[in-house]
Amino acid sequence: MRIDAIMNRRSIRRFAPRPVEREKLEAILRAAMQAPSGKNSQCWEFLVLEDRGDMDAVSTMSPYAQCARNAQAMIVVLGQRERIDPDVPIWIQDLSAATMNALTQIEAEGLGATWLCMYPFPERCAAMRDYFRLPDRVIPFCAIALGYKLQEKAPEDRYDPDRVHWGAY
Ligand SMILES: Cc1cc2nc3c(=O)[nH]c(=O)nc-3n(C[C@H](O)[C@H](O)[C@H](O)COP(=O)(O)O)c2cc1C
């Protein structure tokens, strides 16, 4: 069975000037928190941004975050330090799973988004921490810029049988 929200999703970096409804944002956050996590740590928190100035500020925090300037909303994914084992950095997988669930829900809601990488770049994380006055107990992981799509991108079929090893390598 083809899951459209997975197979059609592409990174969208241009957004229509139309606010994203609160119910949609909540559905996206609900999907993110539904993700699996190592030892069921659920080591995530989310900072939701809708203020133009805040999203413009994020656009300057990474050389690859310019599209934040067009975003209508943003979800900053944060790691909870007290639930993270620094010797076993599995929290990165946990937060990636949450982020991916959010991206899939965003597509299902008829919206578009792009994953903006913050962690593990120290200068990007520091900029986030300073601007949003994040306490030390959370680690900025990534930002999801989202909104109604102002661009359409065709789905790409990336299935490559040469990368699959059935039974033995
Ligand atoms: C871990 C990760 C980090 C990414 N960081 C950025 C980023 O900082 N800026 C950006 O514009 N896109 C970023 N992307 C989006 C990728 O460029 C995009 O997913 C990739 O080119 C494939 O295109 P698609 O999402 O349309 O399928 C990131 C994606 C992932 C998974």
Short characterization:
The chain is of the alpha+beta class. Helix content is 31%, strand content 18%. A 4-stranded antiparallel β-sheet has the order 1-2-4-3, sandwiched between helices.
By CATH, the architecture is named: 3-Layer(aba) Sandwich
Here the CATH topology equals: NADH Oxidase
Rg, alpha carbons: 17 Å
User: How would you name the oligomeric state of the polypeptide chains in this document?
Assistant: single chain
Strand order of the largest sheet: 1-2-4-3
Q: What structural category characterises the helix and strand content? A: alpha+beta
Average pLDDT taken over every residue: 97
For the record, the CATH class is: Alpha Beta
Name of the CATH superfamily:
NADH Oxidase
Percent of residues in helices comes to: 25-40%
The main sheet comes to:
4 strands, antiparallel
The N- to C-terminal Cα distance equals 27 Å
Shape summary: globular
The fraction of residues assigned to DSSP E strands is 15-25%
Q: What small molecules does this complex bind?
A: flavin mononucleotide
Provide a count of the helices: 5
**How many strands?**
4
Could you characterize the architecture of this molecule?
The protein has one domain: NADH Oxidase (3-Layer(aba) Sandwich). It has a four-stranded antiparallel beta sheet, sandwiched between helices. It is globular and about 50 Å long. With 169 residues, it is an alpha+beta fold. Helix 2 packs antiparallel against helix 4. The two termini are 27 Å apart. The longest helix has 18 residues.
